[in-house]
Design a protein that fits this description.
The complex is a heterodimer.
Chain A lengths: L14 E2 L8 E6 L5 E6 L3 E6 L4 E7 L4 E8 L2 E6 L3 E6 L4 E7 L4 E7 L4 E6 L3 E5 L13 E2 L11 E6 L6 E5 L4 E5 L4 E5 L7 E6 L5 E6 L14 E6 L2 H4 L11
Antiparallel strand pairs in A: 1-20, 2-3, 3-4, 4-5, 6-7, 7-8, 8-9, 10-11, 11-12, 12-13, 14-15, 15-16, 16-17, 18-19, 19-20
Chain B lengths: L2 H28 L3 H50 L7 H4 L5 H41 L18 H39 L3 H8 L14 H39 L3 H5 L2 H4 L17 H39 L14 H5 L5 H47 L10 H36 L4 E2 L2 E2 H40 L6 H8 L7 H14 L1 H18 L6 H8 L86 H4 L17 H14 L1
Helix pairs in contact in B: 2-4, 4-5, 5-7, 7-10, 10-12, 12-13, 13-14
Classes of the chains: A mainly beta, B mainly alpha.
Chain lengths: ~250, ~700
């Protein structure tokens, strides 16, 4: 329990992360190599935490709200900004540069290991692929335009995180509840106790033992006063995420 | 002759001679004549001869008697032997030593006496057997008993005969025992039947034959008796079967009545002993008095009581069923055809004019019919529900759109917005719904050859009416829109003629007031101010935009008011001038940034369609940007703008108000994500 936490850090919520962002959390991601946690926020920062040690390792400040972030490897990552930029962040040197731009706020960013490319989606209705080394502009062939939104449409549920071990996944919504689901057997496995605010983002650690929960008001009811934004690190019990197959196993 | 006799005779003759001498002496003395003498001597000789003769006769007779006796004895002996079937005894032949008849006789006599004795014994045996035969026969065949041979005589006393008779006796005895067994069986059966039927056994048995009732004593075992006994048994068995069937009928009536009237279990259990036998066969019913007259009456009276109860409940049942029928009709929206009611009136039942059971049947039949009809109507009814619900939402939406306060961000505003959004979708689907419904109704009506009514009215008529009203509304809307366009054109012309005017504040202020919760008023003014900081540009733009719009013949709202109104409102629905008669909002153009109009760009990303009048449902991406007027970034934004910003396409607030001609039926729904709205808020804050 972090003493700095303003909200009561209930035992059932997990361990509250120290030095959370000062405004809404747009996304958070665990690294694939360690329990480093990357958090993007409306307070224009991208923060890197060591979730185990509960320590803020680094922080990048952008010109505008950061709408998404992702890891490249354990030493670097990418961010998607409302200022239309896609930035590359190098943690060790605390340096950042602009990888590319869109014509509108960049809503999401993802690194594809398979393709070796950074993929971004923007409210300019385009999806672009970038060379993570920032060699040139976006690969033209990957440019695509769509009529509708690029980012996920808002649902009542805001986030999903996969538990790597079992293939079950967790969802969190504006109601403040995190649910764990078994997609194959189509069952809800578990529900954590209610968080003080909407669940803005979820992420399982690489080994599935930790679940980071961003409890952060997501503006579904417009501007209003709300609970402070916080991040909780939960230790995951197997029972919460292990699938429970139906009594009659489906034919394989 | 023996020597002694000879001697005697000689002596006698000597005596006789002496006597004669004497006689002669006497005669001489007497002087008897010779004649007299001769005569006397003759007499004497004759007399002497007769005496001899007599003696000889006697002896002869004696001899004859003996012979006869022997013959008789022999005859008797032979007779006895033959009668008794024994070999004859020949005494004489067997014994040569016998001398004289007297010895013979004496020899036979012991044999004779012994045989006589044996015969008597044998006869006794016969008599014994015969007596028994008689006795048994009389028991078993009294009337027609004709003994095949009752030897009265004793001509056949042989052992063989005795054997025969003994055999006959045995067979008679066996027959007797068989019959007795039969009788006992019958009696047992009779006894159990009497027990079950509650009839007096002794009396019954006595009537068959008195002797049968005796515990000891011989029972009459005649054919007649046995027949009578058998028929008594059959009679009672038939009675048992009849009563059993009656009881089982009563039991099933009882079960029916219990079922019909939901009789409590305790009551039913009192008659457990009746209902348990409902499927029993004749030989399974053995309890005493289960079929007695009294018991049957008892059960019968209970059934009667139940039936009376049923009759009294009939009325209630009929009413209950009637209610059920009406409920089914109501649910299937078949209310309105009340022709059937009269048949089932309670008064008619009470008055006895109608048989309640019959009425009940009729109602049941009606219920079955209604259920079948309801089933066939189910699909259509469901669609009607949805259509009605959509109409409700349509009506709500109409009211909602007339409400100026609807963008108030008070509590639950979010929910209202959601409802309105959903309502719009629903309304769009309405014509399709009506189409499908109409098709289905027509098919149904054709198949069933009658109208589809809904609570008394013809459903097709309802739908037609609805569509007519709708069309009228649409026409009215269009008319008003056209009017507004004309009015706006006039206004624009005037403005062009007379120079720009500041944006009329009045319509704005009325709108601003309710929006304080958005912090809108100040912001908006400041935004407006921000816009005004480049007034010329902006208004010029507005004008040209308006002009552009005019050429495009689109839009009826005053752009300036819209331009100011839209700023800083990161909400989904854009408000209109109250004078707007539009009932739906213009959708925000997708990807147009919700930001104050300081980023007026000139280059459209896409060519603007000039066909704004068409029912073009695709959203314009960058509405009505004036391609001719170059714009520059006027106010600083927290955006990482590169010099190539001019190539960016950012919609102006004006452009946001690019009027899109409303298709009469379908409206597009553009949603703002929470993030987009949030960003607009943040950027607005920065401007403030």
């Amino acid at each position: 329990m972090s003493a700095a936490a303003a909200a009561p850090a209930a035992t059932g919520s997990g361990r509250e992360l120290a030095n959370p962002p000062a405004d809404g959390i747009s996304n958070l991601r665990f690294s694939n190599h360690s329990n480093n946690l990357l958090v993007s926020s409306w307070d224009k920062t991208v923060r890197l935490y060591d979730a185990d040690a509960n320590v803020l390792k680094g922080e990048f400040v952008h010109p505008g709200a950061v709408l998404d972030c992702c890891f490249h490897d354990d030493s670097s990552g990418f961010s998607a900004g409302a200022d239309h930029t896609v930035r590359r962040l190098v943690f060790s040197s605390a340096k950042e540069d602009v990888l590319g731009r869109h014509d509108g706020p960049v809503r999401c960013v993802e690194y594809s290991y398979a393709a070796g490319q950074v993929i971004t989606g923007s409210w300019d209705k385009t999806v672009k692929c970038w060379d993570p080394r920032g060699v040139s502009g976006p690969e033209r062939y990957a440019l695509s335009s769509v009529e509708g939104r690029v980012s996920m449409e808002f649902f009542d549920l805001s986030e999903s995180a996969q538990s790597k071990k079992y293939g079950t996944f967790a969802t969190g919504g504006c109601d403040g509840f995190v649910n764990v689901w078994d997609g194959i057997n189509k069952k809800r496995l578990y529900q954590y106790s209610k968080y003080a605010s909407s669940i803005a983002a979820l992420s399982f650690s690489k080994d599935g033992h930790l679940l980071a929960v961003a409890s952060s008001y997501t503006y579904e009811e417009g501007e209003k006063s709300h609970e402070p934004d916080a991040i909780f690190i939960r230790t995951v019990n197997e029972v919460e995420v292990k699938p429970k197959p139906k009594a009659l196993a489906a034919p394989q | 002759m023996s020597s002694a006799v000879k001697e005697q005779l000689q002596q006698m003759s000597t005596t006789c001679d002496s006597l004669l001498l004497e006689l002669n002496v006497i005669w001489d003395e007497v002087g008897e004549p010779d004649t007299a003498r001769d005569r006397m001597l003759l007499e004497l000789e004759q007399e002497c001869l007769e005496v001899y003769r007599r003696k000889v006769d006697l002896a002869n007779r004696c001899r004859a008697q003996l012979r006869q006796a022997i013959a008789e004895a022999e005859a008797e002996l032979a007779g006895i032997c033959s009668a008794m079937g024994e070999p004859p005894i020949h005494v004489r032949q067997s014994n040569q030593k016998l001398r004289g008849l007297r010895e013979e006789l004496d020899a036979i006599v012991p044999y004779l006496e012994e045989m006589r004795k044996k015969k008597v014994e044998r006869w006794d045996q016969f008599v014994d057997v015969i007596d028994q035969i008689k006795k048994v026969a009389s028991e078993i065949r009294p009337a027609d008993y004709v003994p095949f041979k009752v030897p009265v005589d004793q001509s056949d006393l042989s052992l063989r005969k005795l054997e025969e008779l003994t055999k006959e006796l045995q067979s008679l005895q066996k027959e007797k025992s068989d019959r007795l067994k039969q009788v006992m069986e019958h009696l047992n059966t009779l006894h159990s039947l009497c027990e079950v039927l509650g009839i007096d056994f002794r009396q019954t048995v006595y009537e068959v034959h008195p002797s049968l009732g005796e515990a000891d004593g011989s029972k009459n075992l005649s054919n007649c008796t046995i027949e009578r006994l058998a028929s008594a048994v059959n009679g009672l068995r038939e009675m048992k079967v009849q009563r059993m069937q009656k009881l089982q009928d009563l039991a099933s009536s009882m079960l029916e009545l219990w079922n019909l009237m939901d009789t409590p279990l305790e009551e039913q259990q009192m008659f457990q002993n009746v209902t348990c036998n409902i499927a029993a066969s004749e030989h399974e019913i053995t309890e005493p008095n289960t079929l007695s007259i009294d018991f049957l009456s008892y059960v019968e009276s209970e059934v009667l009581r139940l039936e009376q109860l049923k009759a009294s409940k009939m009325k209630d049942l009929v009413l209950k069923k009637k209610t059920e029928l009406e409920e089914h009709r109501r649910r299937a929206h078949l209310i309105g055809e009340e022709g059937y009611v009269a048949e089932f009136s309670a008064e008619a039942i009470e008055a006895g004019a109608v048989d309640p059971a019959l009425v009940l049947e009729q109602i049941e039949a009606h219920i079955a019919t209604v259920k079948e009809e309801a089933f066939s109507r189910k699909d259509i009814l469901e669609k009607v529900e949805r259509w009605l619900n959509a109409c409700e939402e349509e009506a709500w939406l109409e009211d909602y759109n007339k409400d100026d306060n609807r963008y108030n961000a008070g509590r639950g505003a979010h929910l209202t917005l959601k409802r309105a959004e959903k309502a719009r979708i629903l309304v769009n689907k309405l014509p399709g719904m009506v189409d499908v419904l109409t098709t289905k109704i027509l098919a149904w009506e054709k198949e069933r050859e009658k109208e589809f009514t809904y609570d008394g009215a013809r459903l097709l008529s309802m739908l037609e009416e609805y569509m007519i009203v709708r069309q009228e509304k649409e026409l009215e809307k269009k008319r008003q829109r056209d009017q507004k366009k004309i009015q706006d054109q006039i206004k624009a012309e005037q403005e062009a003629l007379y120079g720009s005017k500041p944006s009329p504040s009045k319509p704005q202020s009325t709108k601003k007031a309710p929006r304080n919760s958005m912090g809108g008023a100040n912001r908006r003014l400041s935004l407006g101010g921000a816009t005004m900081q480049a007034p010329k540009t902006d208004i010029l733009h507005s004008k040209t935009a308006r002009a552009a719009k005019k050429t495009e013949d689109s839009g009826t709202l005053s752009p300036s008011s819209r331009g100011l109104d839209i700023a800083g409102l990161p909400i989904k629905k854009l408000s209109f001038n109250a004078t707007t008669l539009r009932e739906t909002e213009t959708p925000r153009k997708p990807f147009a940034q919700i930001m104050p109009g300081n980023n007026v760009s000139s280059t459209p990303a896409r060519p603007i369609s000039n066909d704004t009048e068409e029912e073009n449902k695709t959203p314009k991406t960058f509405a009505a940007l004036n391609p001719k007027t170059p714009m520059t970034v006027t106010a600083p934004m927290q955006l990482a703008m590169t010099p190539s910003v001019a190539n960016k396409v950012i919609a102006t607030p004006v452009s946001l108000f690019q009027e899109k001609p409303e298709p009469p039926t379908l409206l597009e729904e553009i949603e703002y994500s929470f993030e987009e709205r949030r960003l607009a808020v943040y950027q607005a804050r920065l401007m403030a």
